Amino acid sequence: MSVAIFHPSVAPFIQQAARALYEADLLERFYTTLYENPDSTMQIVACALARIAGKDLAIQLHRRAITEIPQNYVTGYPLREILRLLSGPLDASGRLTDRVWLWSEMGF
User: Distance between CA 102 and CA 89 in Å, rounded?
Assistant: First the structure.
């Protein structure tokens, strides 16, 4: 038997659950939204573009590092989460951000 974990966050509690399954040789995959993947060409380009714009995206992504299981067990679906993060600074009322959040959560 193997177990796949789906969670939009990479919070410590979910990583610990994935680690326990991994250590028991039961973890099939860990599916999440946006996580730090320093080997990703898209992430490298995004961090470089953010630096040009005066933002340190690498620090923000580091907060989403997966440290408890090997990277080859992780699959990310970052697009909707990226759109949610981008909507915040552009949305003074917060209504758009709420809608994008709902869309991203339901889509995940």
Answer: 17
Task: Write the burial class of residue 13 (CB in 10 Å: 0-12 exposed, 13-18 middle, 19+ buried).
Answer: exposed
Q: Can you tell me the distance from the alpha carbon of 20 to that of 40, in angstroms, rounded to the nearest whole number?
A: 26
CA dihedral angle for residue 104, residue 108, residue 31, residue 56, rounded to 10 degrees: -10
Q: In the predicted model, is pLDDT for residue 80 greater than 90?
A: no
Task: Please tell me the distance from the alpha carbon of residue 35 to that of residue 11, in angstroms, as a whole number.
Answer: 10
The amino acid occupying position 38 is: P
Higher pLDDT, 107 or 13: 13
Show Cβ contacts of residue 44 under 8 Å, excluding neighbours closer than 6 positions. 38
